[in-house]
TrEMBL record:
Signal peptide: none annotated. This is 3-oxoacyl-[acyl-carrier-protein] reductase. SUPFAM superfamilies: NAD(P)-binding Rossmann-fold domains. The active site is at Y154. InterPro entries: 3oxo_ACP_reduc (IPR011284), KR_dom (IPR057326), NAD(P)-bd_dom_sf (IPR036291), Sc_DH/Rdtase_CS (IPR020904), SDR (IPR050259), SDR_fam (IPR002347). Belongs to the short-chain dehydrogenases/reductases (SDR) family. Homotetramer.
Length: 246
């Protein structure tokens, strides 16, 4: 389904990003796994994929850094010759109430989540526009739609990603490139493992489906949005949240 296509997944070594890497690889894409720190985890994932007869490389870098984002795109083009799918998944939280939130708490979350998404789109745009095809999938969050106490920085970054998605979708629609955002609710991952059992059970009460989602639930939607079947869907924000925000 995605054979001869190349997909970049930022923050692809663990959590939702890893599930997306596995999904796109299973669908036949060559995958480029971007990661910031854990080289061992990245290499093990590359080995797992290549042992299945599929192609993968890992590229180290910080998406906040404009030059690192360029290197990610350049290495992808050198290795595979095209960028067909870009999944801007890398993201962090630094949760605290606004009165306690430091300037660094704010800047680092906006820098990674929002500016990181801009940086990668910016450097992927030229080759995608030249090829007149592509899929850009940005990881937002339901928190960007509804806000959350203690997450002003994170909510602002994810709301920003939604505005970025809609604008770039309009700019690229006539060039065969779709740009969509995926908004997960609460998904079991390292990010949500940080929550206490009390917090988790309080959250669960607000999810009509009654349980946290899995990383595969998010990866399934990304697989669809990356495929040719979604060619007439652009500028959308699609929630994967068990009915939490409707
Ligand atoms: P996670 O388990 O904490 O993994 C985050 C990934 O992003 C890691 O691979 C991490 O790499 C990478 N990363 C962080 N900062 C980076 C940077 N500056 N440059 C490059 N890579 C960076 O997170 P997750 O739960 O899978 O979340 C993935 C995405 O989904 C995020 O955008 C998050 O906001 C969003 N999301 C998650 C949930 C949820 O419930 N889990 C809900 C809504 C939205 P290192 O290991 O190298 O740090």
């Amino acid at each position: 389904m995605l054979s001869n296509k190349t997909a970049i997944v930022t923050g692809g070594t663990r959590g939702i990003g890893r599930a997306i890497v596995m999904k796109l690889s299973q669908m036949g894409a060559n995958v480029v796994i971007s990661y910031r720190s854990n080289e061992k985890m990245a290499q093990e994932l590359v080995e797992e994929i290549t042992s299945q007869g599929k192609k993968a490389i890992a590229v180290k870098g910080d998406v906040q850094n404009f030059q690192d984002a360029k290197v990610l795109m350049d290495k992808t083009l050198d290795e595979f010759g095209s960028i067909d799918i870009l999944v801007n998944n890398a993201g962090i939280t630094k949760d605290t109430l606004i009165l306690r939130m430091t300037e660094d708490d704010f800047d680092s979350v906006i820098g990674t989540n929002l500016k990181g998404t801009f940086n990668c789109i910016k450097h992927a745009a030229k080759p995608m526009l030249k090829a007149k095809k592509g899929r850009i999938i940005n990881m937002a969050s339901v928190i960007g739609l509804i806000g959350n106490p203690g997450q002003a920085n994170y909510a602002a970054s994810k709301a920003g990603i939604i505005g970025l998605t809609k604008s770039v979708a309009k700019e690229f629609a006539s060039r065969g490139i779709t740009v969509n955002a995926v908004a997960p609710g609460f998904i079991a991952s390292d990010m949500t493992d940080k929550l206490s059992e009390e917090q988790k059970s309080a959250i669960q009460k607000n999810i009509p489906a009654g349980n946290l989602g899995s990383v595969e639930d998010v990866a399934s939607l990304v697989g669809y949005l990356a495929s040719d079947e979604s060619k007439y869907i652009t500028g959308q924000v699609i929630n994967v949240d068990g009915g939490m925000v409707v």
